[in-house]
Write a structure and sequence with these properties.
Length: 293
């Protein structure tokens, strides 16, 4: 099998031109001269045996093979960055304290089990509750190492990677007697005030759990419980909250059934901010703690 000879600089130049649109902008971003960037692309295309860009357009547009290769190039650069971070940290500077951020729906029993499992490996885990938009900034800036969040059914971005962890079961609940007729219709849910335990609700998540037009946002769980018990509205909440044990609160049977709503959960991280070997240890602990919880 013939192999393609390439350098990290060539792949970096290719990805940068894809994102910048012109050789001039890419050269400025890479702190190289335009001729060098152009030569890196030329030599890469010669080795590949096909063109990556249509150079007759401004900005440059990718050819069909170029489009397919771009995502692989971005993944390759993620791995190269991670390798660089491991090499920098060796031989004995792997983090022994990690920060994990999570959303209000994350099971607390899972988090406590995860703390125990990582402590057994001499890793201290800081836990910070944060909604996903803020958490993505923290992860990108290195202020957090791992995030546990509900999936948004989209690619995160070019900087963060993700892995499936499990799923959460959600169900509608309200104060006993809040709805007079059972099962509750979706129209009735939409016409009633809904309590939302998030400060910011991404559109893809809102489409799944926000039904009502009138909402009250309460992202502190003890206050959410009080307001739900007081009959100020109804809510979609995870089954692990055990809302049926909250004073005077019941799980609702709706016209679509009472089996609830399943929503996938993912772990998020930025390559290079956590060493690959350590990432695998943490992910193994996350998966085990989720199964136990």
């Amino acid at each position: 099998m013939n192999t393609v000879n390439f350098t990290l600089a060539q792949i970096e130049a290719f990805a940068c031109v894809c994102e910048c649109g012109t050789l001039t902008k890419a050269a400025k971003k890479l702190n190289k001269d335009r001729t060098t960037v152009s030569q890196l692309l030329d030599y890469l295309e010669i080795d590949l045996g096909y063109t990556l860009f249509d150079r007759s357009t401004r900005p440059l547009t990718l050819t069909e093979p170029g489009k397919l290769l771009y995502r692989q190039a971005r993944l390759f650069l993620h791995e190269a960055q991670a390798f660089s971070e491991v090499a920098r940290q060796m031989p004995g500077q792997i983090e022994t304290r990690l920060t994990l951020c999570y959303d209000p729906f994350t099971p607390r029993d899972f988090l406590l089990r995860l703390v125990e499992k990582l402590a057994a490996e001499q890793i201290t885990l800081d836990l910070l509750m944060s909604e996903r938009p803020e958490a993505e900034i923290w992860l990108d800036q290195g202020r957090a190492h791992i995030g546990i969040y509900q999936a948004l059914n989209r690619s995160v971005n070019d900087r963060l990677q993700w892995r499936a962890v499990g799923s959460l079961a959600l169900a509608a609940c309200a104060k006993v007697g809040f709805f007079k007729t059972k099962p509750v219709s979706l129209l009735r849910l939409a016409a009633s005030t809904q309590l939302i335990p998030f400060r910011e609700l991404p559109d893809s998540l809102a489409q799944r759990i926000q039904i009502a037009d009138r909402v009250i946002r309460v992202n502190e769980l003890s206050l959410l419980e009080k307001r739900l018990c007081a009959g100020e509205g109804w809510a979609f909440l995870p089954l692990h909250f055990d809302v049926e044990n909250w004073p005077g609160v019941e799980r609702l049977e709706t016209e679509v059934g009472d089996r609830g709503l399943m929503h996938p959960v993912v772990a998020l991280w930025k390559p290079g901010h956590i060493a690959p070997l350590q990432l695998e240890r943490v992910m193994a602990a996350i998966e085990a703690a989720w199964q136990e919880a």
